[in-house]
Structure formats: C-alpha cells, structure tokens
Design brief:
This protein is of the alpha/beta class and 295 residues long. It has two domains: 165 residues, 3-Layer(aba) Sandwich (Rossmann fold); 97 residues, Rossmann fold. It is built from eight helices and ten strands.
Length: 295
C-alpha cells in the first residue's frame, strides 16, 4: 500500500512481445511507461527534477517556473508541480494535440502556445526570453542533470532486475535524451557489453517525442559516448508500427513508441540471439485528436 501518488512513479512492467517479434532466439520486452500516474516515462524525470530542486533550495513556492515541452514532460511537470504547490508555465508549439494542452491545464499549469512553424525550438526560445526579461526560472530538462539521474536511479535498475541481468540491448527513442543517458550509465556499469541503441527520425520525418536536434539546440545532458548505435526510422514506419502495437500486441501508445519498436524489431532481425528491452514511453489516448490512428 502507498500513501503518496509519487510513490506510484516507476516500477513499470516489462511485457514480452508475442506477435511482432518472431525470432525464436531473441526476446523482445516492452517497458510500459504509460503505466506511470501521469501516463508517460517523463513522470520519472519531472519528479526528480522538482523534488531535488526543492530539496536543494533551487526554487520555492514563490518561484515562477517555466519550461518548453513537446507534451509529455509538460504533463508530468504540471502534475508534479501541482502536488508540490508550485506555479509553472508550460510552453509548446500550437500544433500540440488538444488532449495534451487540456491535461496540463487540468493539473493547474498555465499553457502558452507558440507558432507551430517554429517547432519546439521556438518554444525553447520563448521560455529563454521569459527567463532573461521577466525573472522566470527554467526547469531546463535539456540541461538538468536530475533528468538523466532519475533513470540512473530507477529505470536502469528496474530493467536489470526484471531481466535477471540478461539484457543484451536497450532501445530508446531520443528526445531530451534523459532516458537513454541515465539508463545507459546504469546498465553499462552492470554489464559493459550491453548495447545502447538510440532512435532518431529520418530527415524530413516528424515524430512527436523523437528529435534530431540542430547542433545549437542539442541537449546539454547528451553524451554521444553513452550511445553505441543510432537507428533512424521514418514517420511512415513509426505510424504503421504504432498501429500494429495496438492491434497485434494490445499496447496502445504514441508514435515515438512505434518508432522505437520498429528499430527494436530491425535490431532483432540482425541478432543470432539476445534480450532486447524497448521503451514504450506513453499511452495512445493523448493522440486521439490527431490522425495517428486514422485509417
């Protein structure tokens, strides 16, 4: 039994692929991060960034917090900020799904939408300007060390425990890169031979939650030495696999999870044997107003 909502963050289940992966000597596990109370893997980082920041005295209930987000981090920050009684403004492109905007507002956050043609980079620029000119303080998920540390403390140990140390490959989409950075650090300390595989979109593909950042916007927490290999997936691949995940495995998730799954299956086809863990980073219900599940 637990008395705090934040105690329910983490310890998400691993589910073995029974349909999509047909390689008899490769086990592919999906880590279902949509089971977190805020519905995504970002609950881990949001809680660690806010709880650790408060503990150090980096900010207080009087601080005006601000953060740019493409969606899941914003929802998680809105939830955690509300629990701790903090004021937060979340900034994201205006083409974000209505479900995401409404969920953040339901948790009590102020939501500001920036021009869609400027993307998440435009939202980041807006937030930076508010910090510079109006005295706001940024959580800064792209440079906050507490982001990746959340996964070093929780995600990595859970995967190691739940695979009995048999994991050979870890696959994760890369956005802020906190998940892959922290999990890589932990798993490599346990077994240096574990291969860390990042997933990025192909050129001209738009996949929410996966980015190929321009150099000037590359997350400061990203260390390329902690990723052994990068696989690229197209928008069409990610969409198709997201639909297959729901229809064939019963896993209802967003497009970044479809992208990661497509990469994991490609990887499985290359191996003689192995144990792959792929991150399913959120739930599909926050994409229903988009065209992701049309047709």
């Amino acid at each position: 039994m637990t008395n705090k909502l934040t105690d329910l963050i983490g310890n998400t289940p691993l589910v073995l692929s029974k349909t999509l992966n047909d390689h008899p000597k490769v086990r592919l596990y999906f880590k279902l991060e949509g089971q977190n109370p805020g519905g995504s893997v970002k609950d881990r980082a949001a809680h660690n960034m806010i709880a650790s920041g408060l503990e150090r005295g980096d900010f207080s209930k009087e601080t005006r917090l601000i953060e740019a987000t493409s969606g899941n981090t914003g929802i998680a920050l809105a939830m955690i900020a509300g629990i701790y009684g903090l004021n937060i403004e979340l900034v994201m492109p205006e083409n974000a799904t209505r479900e995401r905007v409404q969920t953040m507002r339901a948790y009590g956050a102020k939501v500001t939408l920036t021009p869609s043609e400027k993307g998440i980079e435009g939202a980041r620029d807006y937030a930076e300007a508010k910090v510079t000119s109006e005295g706001y303080q940024m959580i800064n998920q792209f440079g906050n060390q507490d982001n990746w540390k959340a996964h070093y403390k929780t995600t990595g140990p859970e995967i190691w425990r739940d695979t009995g140390g048999e994991i050979t490959h870890f696959v994760s989409s890369m956005g802020t890169t906190g998940t892959i950075m922290g999990t890589s650090r932990f798993l490599k300390e346990k077994k240096a031979s574990v291969q860390i595989v990042g997933v990025q979109p192909t050129d001209n593909s738009s996949i929410p939650g996966i980015r190929k950042w321009p150099r000037e916007y590359l997350p400061k927490i990203f260390d390329p030495k902690r990723v052994d290999r990068i696989l690229e997936v197209s928008e069409a691949e990610a969409k198709a696999m997201t639909k297959r995940l729901a229809k064939e495995e019963g896993i209802f998730a967003g497009m970044s999870s479809g992208g990661a799954t497509a990469a994991a299956l490609r990887l499985a086809g290359e191996l003689d044997e192995g144990v792959i863990v792929s991150i399913i980073c959120d739930r599909g219900d926050r994409y229903l107003s988009s065209d992701l599940f049309d047709g």
